[in-house]
Every structure is written in C-alpha cells, then in structure tokens.
C-alpha cells in the first residue's frame, strides 16, 4: 500500500531554477540541453516508479537467500530482472567517463537519479551504489591496465564492485585491520583475511564482482600508515581483462538485519585470493577515501530519498483519513469528520518532513554540482575552492540527511497512527531501512569528528571559509529583497554565531582534546541547520521568478517560514550543549555508570 511518485517538479526546480545548472554546464563545457535533461529525468522517474518501487516490499519480505554449501546468494524475486533493465537502459554508466563506456553526464543530474532509486527501493539501490564508488577509486588511482580490465565491465554493468574495509575486530578504527597481502612471483598478491558487513559482497546480478580490499603487506608499518588497497575479483582477471577461473574468495554467510533486507550484507572470506595493488603500497586509505567520500554523499542522498517517500505517503494519508473535528471548527462539515491534515500536530510533522526533504535536496544536489566543477572546470582556483567546500560539506550531507531521515520516517509513521505500525502500510519498513544510513559509511559520530577535527581544525577552516563566503555573498545580494527580508538577518546572526563557536571550540580543544570530541556532534548539526536555512532562503528567491504555479511558490515561502521559526531554533540547544563543555560528559567515572 506504500506508493512512490518521483518528485520531478521539485528536482527540476532545484536544478534549473535554484542552481541554474544550464549556465553551469555550458561554462564547464558539458554538451547537454534542457530537452535532453528533461528526458533523462522523466525516464528515470518512469523506471523507478514502475520497475523498482513495486519490488520494495518484496525485497523486505523475502530478503536474500544463502546457500552455505556454495556461498551463493540469491536476491529477492524481481531484483535481477530489474538490474538487467537498469543496465539495458544505460543507467549504470550515466555519469562515468566516455573513455570507459559511460555517458559522462553531470554528477548533479546523477544525484537526481540516485535519489529516485533510493526512494523507490533503497535495498536494491545499494548494488549499483558500490559500483559507482569502485569506478571512482579505479579511475583516480588505478593503473591504466587496471582501468581497461576492470572499469569498462563495471561501467557497462556487466560486473559490480564492493568496498571491503571492516573486519570482526575493527570497524571505524582501520588501524587494527589484520587482512594480509603476500607478494606473488607474477606481480600479483595473495590476499588472506575476513571482512564483514560487505554490502553486495555476493549476489546473482552479474558474472563477476570486483572487491576493493584493504590489507597489510608483510613489511607494512603499524596502524593506518601501513594499509594498502587491492583489487580482488570474484573471478580471476588477467592483465588483458580476460576472465578466468574462480578466485579464492567466498561469501561465508549473510547478515539478518533490522532493515534493507533485499541488500545482501556479507561476511567475505579471502583465502589466498589473487589481488592487484591499487596505487602506492601503504597508501591504501588515500584511494579508499576516494571511494568512501563518494559513498558518503550517496548515503546522504539515501537519507533524502527516505524522507521524501515517507512524506509522500504521510501526506496522502493525512488528506484521506478522517478523524475528529478541527479545533477551530469543522473544515469539512459535509463529512463525518475532518481529515487529519487540519490538525496542528499533524501539520507539525508533515511540515518538518517537507522542510527537511526539500531543503536536503538543495544541499545534496549542490554538493553533487561541486563534483562537476572539480572534474570539469578549466580554472585551477575554481576547482580548488570547490574541492575545499565539498570536503567540508560531505560529513554534513552524510550525517544530517541520514539523521533527519530517521526523524522524518518516524514522524511519517506517527501520522498513520496504529496503521503506521502495521507492516502492510509500508511505513515501518521505511523507518527500519532509515536506521542503517546513520551507521554505514561512517557513523554520525565519525562524521562529526571528521567535520570538526579534520575539516575545521586540521585544515584550518579552509572549507568553512568557502561556505561562509557563499552565505555572506547571498546575504549582501538579497539585503533589500522583501521576499527574504525576514530571513536575512537571522541567517547572518546564525552565521556569526557559528564563526564564534568555531574559534571558541578550537581554543578550548588546544588545552583539552576532549573538548573537540564533546562539541563535535552539536557543532555538525548547528552547521547543518544553518546551511539548510541558507538553501531555503535561496529557494524562496528562486521561486519568485520561476515558472511555477502560485500554490507552489506560496508553499516554498510558507515552508521557509516554518523552517526558520520552528526548526532553525534547534541551533540554540546545540549551542548550549557546546557551551557546557567536555566536563559534563567526562566527569562521570566509569564505575559510576550503574
């Protein structure tokens, strides 16, 4: 009973009216016109609405099958056929370089496709997600023969990719990993170890699966400085790209999870499997973080997708379900009761979902457009500034959008009342699926430390300065615009508070490193709420001149007012938590946790 309708109108508004990608693409030399872009968006919507969305509940109820005798994994009914259609439609190589068989369309357009896939069927979307990350790692760090042998079949969708980091004893702390890589006489390596929580580690979509595996060479230094990255295919592949016999890598089991049941989460055993070194020895994390940062942005989009689908269904239910009369008098006197949508508390939940959904779409699509600039701009300074800003935004996109998806799927479920708790309505699946997005590809806590510890302190706020310049320029440009006059002063105040808090945290952390860890979570969310305020103000400005129905324009204005009045003030709680310092967290002795 859970439905999905791709939000093509708002996707177009974000791309063409707010971000003005037509001018951006022309400046970057991307040869696409509006007609082509519209056609891609419409066809993506059709595929996801009619092919993937009907399989979402199927994947949840069936899950994946596992044969312990062979290590084979069977995906839910219809999943493989959907993947075949995905490949036949050319979607697997939409944004990949033409040199490897892709169409090289913009990443900002790819973000729209990604959102639709994840909203239609999050579990299914995990299979191509990892392939995209593997493509980026090989493209940026692989040797030419590796790119020829592995990239082309991955881009074509004939093979898929994975990312193998986690081991039973180490998750976020990769310095503890034990998987070994022994050099072979032919220049390859023998990989031995066990990896866990490997998404799409085994499945029935393709004839080969290309694992990117972190491992240690015999003489490697301890810790993260001794980690290398290796290509380990399921079926052996020689330097000419010819596929041979089965490699010594096998799925040992699959996990039984809270959500994303249709996504195979595997224990992978490498028993002397043949592998090839990517990049330099002992510098595997450099290449792996290329893949991981791609995945983190993609997981942020998963959060956006779940918010949107949950909101769509809650809105439809709130309009249809009749319960009680409005507190201010009947709104539909000819009916036995008013619909849920007339009640203030229902509107609180719906508006929260709408504000966070549409605002997140702006934030995520802008981040994807920075990838376009980094990859295609002819101006080195522009590329560098975009890279700094994207580096700063990545943990915010990943953490905020996924945490908001947990919040909003619960709000949407609550709109349904008891029916939301019943499986047939599909809302509890969205809530269960959302939970993993805050965990994999780096937990919210890891993203918080990445933002404050690495992007702010270690990089001396270079990305923050890019973001501040973006916000400051907008506020100056719109100072006299009556459409956003009520927002500009608040936005400037919050931006100033963020700058002040940044300096205060850095100063306190210099004397006590725990101050940084204690402030990180709240600092990240303060940042996220300020950035979303900026994008909502920009959306209001863009809507004034956009070719939109008046109801949509008014909806943007009123949702922005709701956001500034009821969501942005969450910053005050985060600021108070930051000001309380590390002592409120660290003063309790271990023995006092009783």
Q: What does this protein structure show overall?
A:
The chain has helices spanning 8-18, 21-27, 34-52, 56-62, 79-88, 107-120, 122-141, 144-156, 284-320, 344-376, 380-415, 427-437, 444-458, 462-477, 485-511, 514-545, 550-567, 570-579, 583-586; strands at 65-67, 72-74, 159-164, 180-183, 189-199, 208-215, 228-233, 235-237, 243-246, 249-254, 265-278. It is α+β, with helices and mostly antiparallel strands. The chain has a domain at 460-585. Strands 3, 4, 5, 6, 7, 10 and 11 form a seven-stranded mixed beta sheet that branches. Strands 1-2 form a two-stranded antiparallel ribbon. β1 (65-67) and β2 form a beta hairpin. The model has no long low-confidence stretch (mean pLDDT 97).
Give a short overview.
The chain has 19 helices and eleven strands. The chain is of the alpha+beta class and 594 residues long.
Distance between the termini: 45 Å
Element order: H for helix, E for strand: HHHHEEHHHHEEEEEEEEEHHHHHHHHHHH
Parts with pLDDT < 50 across at least 5 consecutive residues: none
Shape: globular
Strand content: 5-15%
What percentage of residues falls in helices of 4 or more residues? 55-70%
Major sheet: size, sense and barrel closure?
A: 7 strands, mixed
Q: What is the number of E strands?
A: 11
Radius of gyration: 24 Å
In round numbers, the mean pLDDT is 97
Number of distinct helices: 19
Structural class: alpha+beta
Protein traits:
alpha+beta, 594 residues, two-stranded antiparallel sheet, globular, seven-stranded mixed sheet
Set out the fold topology:
Elements: H1 8-18, H2 21-27, H3 34-52, H4 56-62, E1 65-67, E2 72-74, H5 79-88, H6 107-120, H7 122-141, H8 144-156, E3 159-164, E4 180-183, E5 189-199, E6 208-215, E7 228-233, E8 235-237, E9 243-246, E10 249-254, E11 265-278, H9 284-320, H10 344-376, H11 380-415, H12 427-437, H13 444-458, H14 462-477, H15 485-511, H16 514-545, H17 550-567, H18 570-579, H19 583-586
Parallel strand pairs: 3-6
Antiparallel strand pairs: 1-2, 4-5, 5-11, 6-7, 7-11, 8-9, 10-11
Helix pairs in contact: 1-10, 1-16, 3-6, 6-7, 6-9, 6-10, 7-8, 7-9, 9-10, 9-11, 9-12, 10-11, 10-16, 10-17, 11-12, 11-13, 11-14, 11-16, 13-16, 14-15, 15-16, 16-17, 16-18
